Amino acid sequence: MKTAQLEKEMVKMGQKLLNFWQKPIVNFIGRTIIYFVILLILLYLYDYSGIGSPKFIYNEF
Fold first, then answer.
1. CA-to-CA distance for 52 and 50, rounded, in angstroms?
2. pLDDT of 30-51, one tens digit each?
């Protein structure tokens, strides 16, 4: 019996979270944060690769 009640509560919490996410301002801020994090990761990976460093041309010699 307790698992059925717990399952119902989880569905209710999921529905509340979905309703919260569908608000336009929350959706906009959430997407902005996600895209910003992705941009930071890409910038870090680009810097880590060393392509912009002056010694990059001579790596193969």
1. 5
2. 999 999 999 999 988 887 766 6
The pTM score is 0.58
Rounded to the nearest 5 degrees, what angle is found at the Cα of 46, between the Cα atoms of 56 and 36? 165
Name, in order, each residue with C-beta under 8 angstroms of 46's C-beta and a sequence gap of 6 or more: 52
Residue 34's nearest CA partner among 21, 46, 47, 45 is: 21
How would DSSP label each residue in 1-61?
Answer: -HHHHHHHHHHHHHHHHHHHHTSHHHHHHHHHHHHHHHHHHHHHHHHHHTTTSGGGGGGG-
